[in-house]
């Protein structure tokens, strides 16, 4: 099982054979057992939306070309895709909704263990949302911002766009999206609308369904944007910090607690309390006290804001437990493999679920609420300390692999670094270097790991190629995890892989920002929801240049996309105007019409389009070509 085809991560390749020897099943085993995977599902032509079915279209043209109700491949594929987008949007919507509700409670003066960490940012947001914060008490501002955000979940007038979509995009983009009828007025209603129009006997027009999908993707964007910004208000704006990534961050002599999932509301408190309860862990024999590490996007959240090391990304989450050194894994929402609870049988690890809608059979459930967050966190840490006492030393195998990672590049942090070069006009050095070609363009890497490809391989291969071509790179989610684990978020990586002109620019900015060397090769922008940080920068550049987003030499890539959230993110990236690469063949190719719309026709509508390329080297060539096409369009 363990070879370079599973992963390029040395920690994974160290632990997988050990898991296999011990008879422990991982996602890689289950992937093998699942083969051959369903061809109908892969093409997107299996319809399961009513109980007359399931129906499936014969892709070779010999068997049925219509489902029992008469829906053809185009309708079925479009409906399946739109439902994936709706699910992705729902995930981010719930995240944002939760954070906005918490801000409202704080604004209303409820006693919660959170406070407004970034007053200035909150006031800026209030201004952006046209709430006239001047002279108002900060709690009042918090309340008004929370209510304006919650309005994006409750507005009934469909002619009024969501605040967080309208106020964060270029005016011309907003106009275009309104004109196309894809601008959401209400995040929840847009998700419900997709579920309705894809119900049996509703929308059968594939193109119309896809437009509904674009609207759903923009609802996703809206939920993500407010989620990131309000999280910054509560927990702090990330700033560059040096930390480490990969399973070597676990410590033999510490109580290791992994925080996993997406929502920082609990993990932030766990981190706070771990400092206070450190002595308790030491008393239990853990010489190094408590060691918090992150997995997936909760990991990215605490890594960006606190420098907490990242243990691993999505695909290798089970292997964190296979080290035998994780005493508790605390999970909140999204991207948590249910298999973690089964692994608990082989090790002493406490697997703790915390959210009412995210339970796993076999796990310990400690229900989280904002009011009891402190008590919850204390109980979790106590469980971890108790588990540490039960840890079987003979089963501990911490791989000796970790890489330094400089993370924390929020839009504010990037602007702060640029302002050291030009205090009056921080964007100028970036724009000048794009115009003169020192920076060929910008690529945003997003998305997950997927067993269909060698873990992390697509990310690192494409990044090295783009670096050589002087492309400035940003990353989020498990893509950022991949870059961190493989040492590409370091100054050394810039020295080793960046083309000459990119290296020069990164060095000038890095030196000016006091990093004593260049900026890292790939800038870590945060978790999945934080993709909007990149939009924030792109919109600022577009506004300054007086062009829309679809004119910028900016591309996106999800080389190992997997989750419904990634489908939603990719779709809004396209809708905002970006050429967007997928390294995994999307489950739509059973409909030539849908495939053509997404990869070609959509370009005429919104400027962005999907590029599918599974070979990472060829993908890099295509991304560079897309950037050059944009440069030509701008005449630079
Ligand atoms: Fe999940 Fe965000 Fe994907 Fe990773 S990248 S597998 S969605 S954790 Ni966002």
From TrEMBL:
Annotated catalysed reactions: CO + 2 oxidized [2Fe-2S]-[ferredoxin] + H2O = 2 reduced [2Fe-2S]-[ferredoxin] + CO2 + 2 H(+)
Names of required cofactors: [4Fe-4S] cluster
E.C. designation(s): 1.2.7.4
GO BP terms: generation of precursor metabolites and energy; response to hydrogen peroxide
Keywords in alphabetical order: 4Fe-4S, Iron, Iron-sulfur, Metal-binding, Nickel, Oxidoreductase
Binding-site residues, [Ni-4Fe-4S] cluster: 262, 297, 335, 448, 478, 528
Annotated [4Fe-4S] cluster 1 binding sites: 38, 46
Alphabetical list of InterPro entries matching this protein: CO_DH_a-bundle, CODH, HCP/CODH, Prismane-like_a/b-sand, Prismane-like_sf
Molecular-function annotations in GO: 4 iron, 4 sulfur cluster binding; anaerobic carbon-monoxide dehydrogenase activity; hydroxylamine reductase activity; nickel cation binding; peroxidase activity
Binding sites annotated in the UniProt record for [4Fe-4S] cluster 2: 47, 50, 55, 69
Lineage of origin: Bacteria, Bacillati, Bacillota, Clostridia, Neomoorellales
The protein's name in its UniProt record: Carbon monoxide dehydrogenase
């Amino acid at each position: 099982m363990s070879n370079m085809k599973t992963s390029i991560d040395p920690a994974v390749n160290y632990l997988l054979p050990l898991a296999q020897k011990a008879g422990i099943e991982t996602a890689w085993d289950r992937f093998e057992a699942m083969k051959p995977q369903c061809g109908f599902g892969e093409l997107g032509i299996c319809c399961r939306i009513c109980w007359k079915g399931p129906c499936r279209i014969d892709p070779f043209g010999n068997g049925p070309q219509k489902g029992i109700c008469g829906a053809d491949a185009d309708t079925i594929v479009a409906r399946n895709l739109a439902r994936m987008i709706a699910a992705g949007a729902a995930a981010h919507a719930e995240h944002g909704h939760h954070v906005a509700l918490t801000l409202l409670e704080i604004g209303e003066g409820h006693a919660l263990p959170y406070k407004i960490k970034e007053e200035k940012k909150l006031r800026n947001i209030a201004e952006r949302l046209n709430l006239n914060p001047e002279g108002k008490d900060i709690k009042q501002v918090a309340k008004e911002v929370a209510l304006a955000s919650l309005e994006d979940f409750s507005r009934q007038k469909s002619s009024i766009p969501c605040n967080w979509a309208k106020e964060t995009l270029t005016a011309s983009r907003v106009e275009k999206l309104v004109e196309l009828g894809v601008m959401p007025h209400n995040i929840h209603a847009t998700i419900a609308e997709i579920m309705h129009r894809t119900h049996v006997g509703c929308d059968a027009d594939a193109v119309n369904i896809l437009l509904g999908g674009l609207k759903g993707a923009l609802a996703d964007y809206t939920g993500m944007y407010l989620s990131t910004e309000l999280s910054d208000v509560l927990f702090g704006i990330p700033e560059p910090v040096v930390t480490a990534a990969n399973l070597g961050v676990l410590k033999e002599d510490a109580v290791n607690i992994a925080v996993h999932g997406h929502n920082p509301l609990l993990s932030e408190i766990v981190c706070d309390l771990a400092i206070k309860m450190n002595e308790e862990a030491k008393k239990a024999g853990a010489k190094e006290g408590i060691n918090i590490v992150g997995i997936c996007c909760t990991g990215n959240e605490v890594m960006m804001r606190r420098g907490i090391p990242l243990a691993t990304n999505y695909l290798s989450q089970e292997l964190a437990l296979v080290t035998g050194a994780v005493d508790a894994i605390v999970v909140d929402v999204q991207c948590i493999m249910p298999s973690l609870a089964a692994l608990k049988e082989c090790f002493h690890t406490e697997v703790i679920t915390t959210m009412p809608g995210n339970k796993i059979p076999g796990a310990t459930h400690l229900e989280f609420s904002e009011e009891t967050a402190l008590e919850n966190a204390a109980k979790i840490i106590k469980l971890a300390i108790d588990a540490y006492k039960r840890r079987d030393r003979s089963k501990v195998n911490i791989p000796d692999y970790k890489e330094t990672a400089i993370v924390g590049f929020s839009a504010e942090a990037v602007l702060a670094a640029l302002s050291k070069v030009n205090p009056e006009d921080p964007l100028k050095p970036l724009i000048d270097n794009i115009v003169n070609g020192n920076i060929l363009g910008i690529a945003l890497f997003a998305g997950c790991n997927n067993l269909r490809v060698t873990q992390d391989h697509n990310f690192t291969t494409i990044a090295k190629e783009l670096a050589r071509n002087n492309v400035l790179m940003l990353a989020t989610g498990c893509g950022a995890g991949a870059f961190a684990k493989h040492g590409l978020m370091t100054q050394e990586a810039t020295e080793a892989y960046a083309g000459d002109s990119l290296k020069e620019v990164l060095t000038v900015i890095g030196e000016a920002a006091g990093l004593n060397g260049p900026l890292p090769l790939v800038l870590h922008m945060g978790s999945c929801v934080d993709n909007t940080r990149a939009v924030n920068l792109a919109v600022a550049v577009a506004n300054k240049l007086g062009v829309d987003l679809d004119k910028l030499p900016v591309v996106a890539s999800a080389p190992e996309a997997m989750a419904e959230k990634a489908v939603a993110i990719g779709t809004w990236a396209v809708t905002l105007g970006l050429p967007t690469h997928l390294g995994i063949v999307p489950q739509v190719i059973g409909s030539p019409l849908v495939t053509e719309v997404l990869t070609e026709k959509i370009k005429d509508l919104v400027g962005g389009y999907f590029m599918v390329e599974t070979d990472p080297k060829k993908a890099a060539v295509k991304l560079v070509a897309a950037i050059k096409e944009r440069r030509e369009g701008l005449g630079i």
